[in-house]
Amino acid sequence: MSELFVKICGLKTGHDVGAAVDAGADAVGFVFAPGSPRTVDAATARALAAGVPDSVLTVGVFRGQPVEEVRRFAEESGVRGVQLHGDEGPEFYEALRAGGRTLLRATAEHVKRCGEYGEDLLLLDAPDPGSGKPWNWGSAEFAAPEGRWLLAGGLTPGNVREAVATTGAWGVDVSSGVERERGVKDPALIRSFIEAARG
Ligand SMILES: O=C(O)c1ccccc1N[C@@H]1O[C@H](COP(=O)(O)O)[C@@H](O)[C@H]1O
């Protein structure tokens, strides 16, 4: 099996982006959804993304924003991926397809396979994204979707290995679990998380 895909989300400083990249992250996320302690503007994300090698995917994170706003933030920041948390339907993904970006569909719903809405990657998350609260991925009722999917929601360096082993996730995404306080990343936790995730 190839190496687990790891995304570190909610980065706000060059120091933290560097820590994630140096520790081997496959993707780094910048939150454009309003109202989060991690929200950054497009210019800040552009400056942060400039220091990221091409091998690492830069992702803009949105929640319930109009397609024009998503497109504008993506273009102004230069991110190569777009992650949508909300009730966007397939037409939303179709509208963004022409931008050539990797499309991530984040949902708390039960989904059978990645790609149903035209997304490239599926992200199974808690109902309250970015809260650090886990959901019941360990329950007997949970059935992993087909295809490339990432597990998110309440992951930490302490539980990520078990979460991957239990669910068979293709990748993982984390924000709160690598913070020393809400909205403030800790480079040591970022390194521990990535090491633990890959076992
Ligand atoms: O991180 C946020 O503040 C955020 C805001 C709006 C939409 C998504 C957000 N983050 C995503 O939430 C999960 C991580 O959650 P956790 O903090 O590790 O439990 C991940 O998909 C982030 O991209």
UniProtKB/TrEMBL annotation:
Single GO MF annotation: phosphoribosylanthranilate isomerase activity
Pfam family name, one: PRAI
Residue ranges annotated for the N-(5'phosphoribosyl) anthranilate isomerase (PRAI) domain, each copy included: 6-195
Record carries keyword Mitochondrion: no
Pathway stated in the Swiss-Prot or TrEMBL entry: Amino-acid biosynthesis; L-tryptophan biosynthesis; L-tryptophan from chorismate: step 3/5
Keywords, alphabetical: Amino-acid biosynthesis, Aromatic amino acid biosynthesis, Isomerase, Tryptophan biosynthesis
Assigned EC number: 5.3.1.24
Annotated source species: Streptomyces roseus
Family: Belongs to the TrpF family.
Superkingdom, taxonomy of origin: Bacteria
Protein's UniProt keywords contain Chaperone: no
Biological process terms in GO annotation: L-tryptophan biosynthetic process
Catalyzed reactions: N-(5-phospho-beta-D-ribosyl)anthranilate = 1-(2-carboxyphenylamino)-1-deoxy-D-ribulose 5-phosphate
Name of the encoding gene: trpF
Name of the protein: N-(5'-phosphoribosyl)anthranilate isomerase
